[in-house]
Amino acid sequence: MFSLRSFARSAPRSVARLSARSFRPHSSLLRTPAVFQPSWTQPVARLTSSFHSSAIRRDDSVNEELVAKLQSEITMEEEMRDDENYSTNIRDYLENSPFELEEKPGQEEIVLTRKFGDENIRVTFTTADLANMDQDADEMEDHSLYDEADSTVSDLIGQQQSGGANTKGTVNQGRTSDGNIKGAPEDSVAPADRPEYEDLEDEGRDQSFPARANIRIERPGKGALAIEAVAQDGDFVIDNFYYFPNAELAEPKTADKDWERRALYTGPPFGNLDEDLQILLEKYLEERGINTRMALFIPDYIDYKEQKEYLRWLNNVKSFVE
């Protein structure tokens, strides 16, 4: 759904802009350059002031056209919003998940919270990832010609290599036995190809895009864990797994706390850890509900939230202009 709506929003408007432009002769063509003016020419006194204080008239037709366009966008968004399956996916997760959803109208951040024993778990994500997706797609398109050339060369080289070389990179690193979370992007097995997740295939395939998730687990008197991950295709790809002796440093609110955080050793990159340790840490998160269901829900809800905020923005602008 989000790709269709993004395409509709970003439709080229260059034709309309060009048609609105009018040709104006350059002012330098209408007067004699100072170089060719004779030295005896006397300056002519101005008979009118260089400015006037009369009020600029408001063009109501511009406002009416803008309001009509805003209303057209609002109507389109409301029509695209009517998708029962999409709403069901979100509703099912919220009704059957131990996490509670926190969000505020007009803000990008979305938070999932829960208690697990004496632990306070907080998962934060944002609609900014969806807003930045189109920009990344444009940059990838600019390099498509170079990518095609590199792919052709790679294919030619691959045909000349042995079977061992051609199978390089197919090992799944840091993946749990049930495939919920992977710790490295080299994992080539998508969750839709795993038999244990066949029932989830249609849920996340159409809504798949990389969404950052910041996970924080706090225990009283024991500090906090902070995990940076990306949810995509029903998997969490973990980038970093930090430990902070002071829970306030996991999400610093002041410059002093941020400076104190920078001085700490919080652990190596997750991919540098022993593979067995990666698997156990992934199981630790899965036990707390940070699993495939959540990885599918996060991009789903980001799309829903972004559409809702965009619709609110359209109505606010229309109300202001009217």
From TrEMBL:
Example of a GO biological process term: cytosolic ribosome assembly
A Pfam family the protein falls into: MAM33
Polar residues bias (residue ranges): 158-179
InterPro entries referenced in this protein's UniProt entry, alphabetically: MAM33, MAM33_sf
Cited Gene3D superfamilies: Mitochondrial glycoprotein
UniProt-annotated stretches for the region Disordered: 158-205
Entry GO terms, CC: mitochondrial matrix
Name this polypeptide is given: Regulatory protein-like protein suaprga1
Protein source organism: Lepidopterella palustris CBS 459.81
Lineage: Eukaryota, Fungi, Dikarya, Ascomycota, Pezizomycotina
